[in-house]
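User: Reviewer 2 asked us to show a designed sequence for the structure in our supplementary figure. I'm pasting the structure tokens here. Could you produce the per-position amino acids so we can include them in the response letter?
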């Protein structure tokens, strides 16, 4: 009788691990899909000059010389840093909501929300006009 209970707990634990692994895999794939496009995105924004003031501010804060060859590196670093900073800010909120409502509903909500946001961003015409390499 005890072995039946242990087996069912093992199966349930294995199923939970699979679901969490699949959610993390989808999230990582969604984040890394943009990496091959990053050089083209950086070139696009450097040509339009729409984010040049932000790069110049970041350059002043970090103390990098005023040379244009550093623009794409600084912009890429700024995007990566912004992602990490926002993840740092949102993790305690997501953890608290997970404590209140449970892990599964919140995991489902965040995965569906991220999917909707990425689907919306994929349909933006200016994003699609950026050609990879």
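Assistant: Here is a per-position design you can include in the supplement:
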């Amino acid at each position: 009788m005890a072995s039946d209970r242990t087996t069912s707990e093992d199966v349930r634990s294995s199923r939970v691990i699979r679901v969490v692994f699949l959610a993390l895999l989808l999230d990582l794939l969604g984040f890394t899909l943009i990496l091959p496009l990053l050089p083209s995105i950086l070139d696009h924004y450097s040509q339009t000059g729409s984010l040049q003031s932000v790069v110049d501010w970041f350059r002043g804060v970090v103390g990098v010389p005023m040379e244009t060859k550093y623009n794409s590196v600084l912009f890429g670093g700024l995007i990566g840093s912004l992602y990490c900073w926002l993840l740092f800010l949102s993790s305690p909120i997501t953890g608290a909501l997970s404590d209140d409502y449970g892990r599964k509903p919140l995991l489902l909500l965040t995965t569906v929300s991220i999917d909707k946001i990425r689907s919306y961003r994929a349909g933006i015409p200016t994003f699609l006009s950026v050609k990879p390499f």
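For the response letter, you might also mention the following. Residues 77 and 83 are 10 Å apart (CA to CA). The radius of gyration is 21 Å.
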